[in-house]
Amino acid sequence: MVRGQYKTKKRHEEGISFPKKNKPQKFENYAWVLDYLPYGYTDKPNEPIVQGLGEYQFLLMEMSPKPNVEIELGERVYIGKGKRDKIDHVIKMIKYETLTSTAKSELIYSISEAVKMQEERFIRFFNECPPITTRLHTLELLPEIKKKYMWKIIEEREIKKFESFKDFEERIGKNPVRIIAKRVEKELSDDKKDKYYLFVKWKKGIILNEEDMAYYLKE
């Protein structure tokens, strides 16, 4: 590939509208505990609350724990269909500003653990993520990347696809888990400045569809 040129499809060219796409709602099976409030919020005492992070879609949520269970920060809990050991039900989705100070400080660590458990998914992202326009590539949205490392990643993946997080770090010199985790944290916390969403699918904006690595507008 010649530097300065992207392999783009027509729908990625500047001036071309992104298609709108509605997909069936996916449900999370696991969540990571960001904070546990056994006595609830001050305005709602005696209603135990767990603030958590969905493992795949990175949903921020409030959950109701089952009685008499022990819950620890950073714990991975099952919230899918069928029998749940510690969580009775998910109450609602919440925004970043609703998180407690403890939950905010725990967030990057929980995101990192969730990313580690989805190595195949994120290695595919590094191998296949496309340009957004003729002047902006998806990789440029990632922390620590910018132009220099963007071209290094593109050139390396054309020689040979990345096989693992370890392979990526050895060839690029960057920690892929930290890169993805910091991007997810930014998408969760920055509600106005960024119109592109790579991993937080429930927000409005231009969303990366990881199934076919194309962008679409969310209603």
UniProtKB/TrEMBL annotation:
InterPro entries: DUF655 (IPR007003), NA-bd_OB-fold (IPR012340). It holds the Pfam family DUF655. Residues 1-10 have a biased composition (Basic residues). It comes from the Archaea. Residues 1-20 are annotated as: Disordered. This is DUF655 domain-containing protein. It comes from Methanocaldococcus vulcanius (strain ATCC 700851 / DSM 12094 / M7) (Methanococcus vulcanius).
